[in-house]
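Progress note, sequence design subtask.
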C-alpha cells in the first residue's frame, strides 16, 4: 500500500533510486506486484501460525471478562434468568467493568454452546471467527478485483491479516470479526448499485445495529452519493430509499422478535444502554469523546486554578457527531462523482462512515478498531485505481500513516506517555500524555480524512462543493 512515484515520461532521465540495485524494484510495477504477493503469502503463513497457537493454548487464555461474559449471558437465557443481572447489580452510572452489555441476540446466537466448558465453547467461537476472517477476505477480493490493482489487493491482504486490532479480537475471543463480516457483505451488496442488492445491504446494516448499536452511524452511506444535488443517476434515489427501508425493517423485525421471544430484552434499552452511552475516560478508551474527557480531567488536576470543569458527556458526544459524522454527511450529499466513478465514490462514502464509527462511539476499545480493515479496503479503488490517477495523493499518505498509528499497542503508548514521570506535572505534561496515549485515535482520524480527501478527489467539479 506504499504510494509509489509516478512513472517518468519516456526518454526522461531515470531517478537515483531507479539506478540502485535492490531499490529500483519499487519503481517497477511488476516488481512492486511481486513484493506485494510475497508480503501477502508471508502474512497468511504468520496468521495460520498464530491461529494454530491460539487454538492450542485456549485453556491458558483469560476468557472470563470477554467471551466468558457472552457465555454467561447465553446460559442465563437458557436457564430463564436475566442476562443483565451482573451489570445492573454493579450500579454503574456509566460504563464499568463486568457484566454483559450487548443485546440478547448475541446471547441467543451462542445458546448452542452455552453449557459447554468455557475453553471448549471459546475454541468453537474462535474457529468460527477464523472462518469469518476468510469469508471477509474472499468477499472483499471479489468486490474489489477489477477496481484496484493486484499490488494494492495483495498489500491490503497482508496489512489486514497483520492488523493488531484483528489479533486482539481473536485473542480476547470477541465479536468484532462478526460485525466486520456483516458490514463487508453489506458494502459488497451496496456497490452492486441495484435496488434489491441495496435493500439487502440495508438489512445487513440493520442486523449489525441490533448486535451492536454503533453501526447505526453507517446508515447514511446507503443513500446515493450527491443526493443533495438532485443530479444523481437514474434510479439512485430508489436504491437509497430501499436501502434505508431494508435497514429499518431489519431493525424493527429483529427488535420485535427479541421483545416477544427473548425475555429481558427491554432491560437492555432501559437499564444498560443509557449507562454505557455515557462512555468512560480510561486511557484504554480510544474514542474522541473519551479523549476530550481525559483532557479536561488532566487539565483540572495540573491546573486547578483555571477552573476548567468537564463538559456534559452527552454534549461532547453531540459535538463529536457534528464534527465527524456531520462533515462526512455534508460532503457525501454534495459530491457529484465524475463519469464512471459512481461505484468508486460509493465505496469511499461507505469507507468514510465506517472509519467515523469508532471515532464517534462513546466506547472504543482497540479490538473495536477491526472495522477499519473494511474502510481501508474500500478506499483502494479511489487511491490505487486499476487505471488513471489516484483521487488524492495526500489521501494515500494519510491512509498509510493511519496503519502504524492504529497498530501501536495501548500499554506501550501508556508507558511512553508516562516515561518521564509526572511527579510535578504541568499543563504541557498533560498535553504530552494525551498526544501519546491517543496515537490510536489519531490513526483513526487519519483514515477518516483519507476517505474525505478521496471522495473530494472523485468530484466532477470540486469548486461546487463549497
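Output:
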Amino acid at each position: 500500500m506504499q504510494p509509489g512515484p509516478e512513472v517518468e515520461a519516456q526518454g526522461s532521465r531515470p531517478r537515483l533510486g531507479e539506478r540502485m540495485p535492490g531499490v529500483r524494484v519499487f519503481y517497477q510495477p511488476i516488481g512492486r506486484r511481486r513484493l506485494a504477493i510475497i508480503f501477502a503469502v508471508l502474512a497468511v503463513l504468520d496468521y495460520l501460525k498464530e491461529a494454530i497457537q491460539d487454538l492450542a493454548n485456549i485453556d491458558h487464555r483469560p476468557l472470563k471478562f470477554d467471551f466468558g461474559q457472552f457465555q454467561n449471558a447465553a446460559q442465563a437465557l437458557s436457564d430463564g434468568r436475566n442476562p443483565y443481572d451482573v451489570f445492573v447489580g454493579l450500579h454503574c452510572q456509566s460504563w464499568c467493568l463486568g457484566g454483559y452489555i450487548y443485546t440478547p441476540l448475541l446471547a441467543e446466537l451462542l445458546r448452542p454452546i452455552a453449557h459447554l466448558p468455557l475453553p471448549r465453547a471459546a475454541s468453537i467461537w474462535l474457529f468460527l471467527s477464523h472462518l469469518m476472517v476468510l469469508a471477509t477476505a474472499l468477499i472483499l477480493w471479489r468486490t474489489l478485483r477489477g477496481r484496484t490493482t493486484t499490488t494494492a489487493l495483495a498489500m491490503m491482504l497482508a496489512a489486514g491479516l497483520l492488523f493488531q486490532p484483528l489479533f486482539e479480537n481473536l485473542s480476547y475471543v470477541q465479536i468484532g470479526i462478526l460485525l466486520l463480516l456483516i458490514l463487508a457483505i453489506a458494502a459488497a451488496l451496496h456497490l452492486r448499485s441495484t435496488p434489491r442488492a441495496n435493500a439487502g445491504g440495508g438489512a445487513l446494516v440493520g442486523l449489525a445495529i441490533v448486535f451492536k448499536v454503533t453501526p447505526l452511524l453507517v446508515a447514511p452511506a446507503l443513500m446515493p452519493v450527491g443526493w443533495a444535488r438532485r443530479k444523481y443517476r437514474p434510479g439512485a434515489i430508489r436504491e437509497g430509499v430501499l436501502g434505508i427501508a431494508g435497514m429499518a425493517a431489519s431493525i424493527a423485525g429483529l427488535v420485535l422478535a427479541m421483545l416477544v421471544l427473548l425475555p429481558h430484552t427491554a432491560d437492555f434499552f432501559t437499564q444498560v444502554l443509557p449507562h454505557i452511552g455515557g462512555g468512560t475516560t480510561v486511557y484504554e478508551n480510544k474514542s474522541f469523546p473519551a479523549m476530550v474527557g481525559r483532557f479536561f480531567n488532566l487539565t483540572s488536576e495540573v491546573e486547578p486554578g483555571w477552573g476548567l470543569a468537564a463538559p456534559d458527556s452527552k454534549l461532547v458526544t453531540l459535538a463529536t457527531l457534528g464534527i465527524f459524522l456531520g462533515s462526512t454527511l455534508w460532503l457525501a450529499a454534495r459530491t457529484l462523482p465524475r463519469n464512471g466513478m459512481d461505484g468508486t465514490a460509493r465505496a469511499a462514502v461507505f469507507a468514510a462512515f465506517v472509519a467515523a464509527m469508532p471515532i464517534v462511539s462513546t466506547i472504543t476499545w482497540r479490538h473495536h478498531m477491526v472495522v477499519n480493515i473494511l474502510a481501508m479496503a474500500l478506499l483502494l479503488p479511489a487511491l490505487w485505481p486499476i487505471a488513471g490517477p489516484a483521487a488524492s495523493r495526500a489521501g494515500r499518505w494519510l491512509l498509510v500513516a493511519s496503519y502504524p498509528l492504529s497498530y501501536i499497542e495501548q500499554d506501550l503508548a501508556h508507558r511512553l506517555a508516562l516515561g518521564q514521570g509526572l511527579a510535578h506535572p504541568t499543563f504541557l505534561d498533560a498535553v504530552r500524555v494525551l498526544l501519546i496515549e491517543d496515537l490510536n485515535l489519531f490513526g483513526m482520524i487519519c483514515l477518516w480524512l483519507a476517505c474525505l480527501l478521496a471522495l473530494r478527489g472523485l468530484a466532477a467539479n470540486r469548486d461546487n462543493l463549497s
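Residues 17-465 form one domain. Work on this subtask will continue into the next period as scheduled.
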